[in-house]
Every structure is written in C-alpha cells, then in structure tokens.
C-alpha cells in the first residue's frame, strides 16, 4: 500500500499550521516516521494532484529563509549518506548536506570601460562604459531601455548617459564580456556560475541565440534524453549539476527552462530530506519544488523496484537457476552481501547496473536481465516529467 494513496486528494493551505493528515499509522510504521508529512507546506489553493510547473512561476529568485528553519517545529537532522554503487559517475555528492561552491571564471583584463563608449551601465557599485549600438543590436530589450533613458534623461556619469540596472554586477560583467568577445563563451562554459549568469541575463534581455547556447550547455549536466544521461563524455557536467542541483532548480524556474526540471528533480530526490527542506550553501528551494521532490521520490522508488532494477529485489535462485545451474546456483550470499552495502531509501532509478558478478550472475545469466534493465530505464525516462507533475517531455522541451 502506497503512503501517498492514503492522503486526501486536496490539501488546503497549511502555512502556519502543522500538516498532519489522517493516515493509517500501520502504513506509516512501514516508512519509519511521519515527520516528513508533518513538514510539507503548500501554498494556498495548491492541490497535490494538480501540482504542475505551469501553476507555479517564480517572479525572481526564491525568498531567503532562516539558515536553520524549523518546519512545524520539527528540526530535520542531517542524514548519513551511503553510496549506492550502481554507477560511480552518476552518484551524487559524497556529503550531500554540503553543496560545494562553484569556481568562477578567472579575472579578465578587459575592465569594460571603453573611451569611445556611448552609455554607462550601473550595476551595484560598478560602472561599465560600453557601446549602445552594440547592446541594441544584440538585444531588443536593451534597445528599448537605452531609448527610454534618452527620452527620460536619466542622468550622466563622466559625461556619458547612465542607465542603472538591477542586475548583479559580476553577472552583468560576464554577459558583457560574452557579447564583446566571440570566444569568451567557449572559454568559460565549464564554469557553472558563468552559465547561470548567461542564461539568467540572456533570458531577461531576450538574447535568444546566447540563451540557446547556455541552455544546451547546461543540458549536458541536466539532460533531457537518456542517451545524454548515459554519455560518458558528459560525466563531469553531470557531476557539476548534481553538486549544484538546488541552484539548477531555482534557475530553471526563474528562466522558465522547464526541460531542466525532470532530471534536476531526480538528482534532488537522491539528497537527504534535510538538504531538500533546509537547502545548503545559502541556496534553498521554494515550497512547490520541495513538494515535487518529496512526492516524486516515492514513485521513483516504486519504478526502481518494479521496472528498472527488479533483479535487486529477488534472490538469484529464482532469477538465474533456469539459465545456469552450474555457475550461479547458490550465489544468494553474494547478492545479500551486495545489498547490505546499499541504501534503498535513495533512488537509483536511472543508474546503469553493470556489476552483475557482484550479485552472483555470470554473463549468460545476466544477459536477459540486462535487456530488461535497459528497456525498463527507457520506459521510466519517458515517464520522468510526469512523475514530478510536469506532463510529458514533448510538452516541456523547447
């Protein structure tokens, strides 16, 4: 019996109140504790069954919350992380309670102050003297802003018209360097913070070509196809995306890049609940995203057990004996030893299993299960957006 099936179809706003739905305690005992249920907040008017990405759009970045929040008075202690050694290159952080700080592009000699510039952009305490004609050519939004500044006479700085922008100064610097230097994007696309800056500001200023470049690069780490997820050439990109998955989710919401969310939610569902609820490194998720990850995790575990990795939930005698009575009979001990090292609370739904010898299967015995494993992963990937309430891949992929 699924714990989710015991919940009501509609849950009203629980902001400021303890969320404690009436569920069968015998059901809850099988899942350990009901603390997770007691800590879910939902915005007013949000139905669990109707939670969709289109129903929730951030008007900017998520609000800041206290660094150590208590949800309904329940403090979520950090959980121990144990590796599920299905495939190392897809595994998340060794210590997922700590999201690593991403390195930034190195300092650049160009200070973005051109003596023949026609406009000064102000962001925070920084000033950039650049060419209005170049900005207007790259962005219709910039063209409109500069035209309005001339009409409204917004002031000057060192003899040039000045336009004050609400952008982060370093992010604006990265965007301007990319506009002025053709090679700057490829030289710095390996830096996660750079890609975030470019995607965020190219979306804001409607610079479609640059936005597409940044989005396609981010998709290496947060893929929309299973083939890309399995591509060994993107291993480093996937590792980087998993380290910064909370920021990826917030960025996807802010820039309306919904195609990034299914895989990002999958990465996030593998983190400890304390990290999902409390955030890490100053990055915290909005409540609908927390809800999507928590509810989707249950479905991922069911699919893993029934479709993608069923061979890990039965003993070799029932799996392999009909294929090979000589090599694999009596290898239950190997599977049990392997399973003792795993944490089945953390989804491994899309991780490729290749270590058949560790669970007592020779090559001939493993072959039919490998085929079923491959087919199961493909079927599960097709369902991934729907698991998190996002519809289908065709609906969300640009």
Automatic annotation (TrEMBL):
Signal peptide: none
Coiled coil: none
Residue ranges occupied by any BTB domain in the UniProt entry: 117-180
Name of this chain's protein: BTB domain-containing protein
Native organism: Suillus discolor
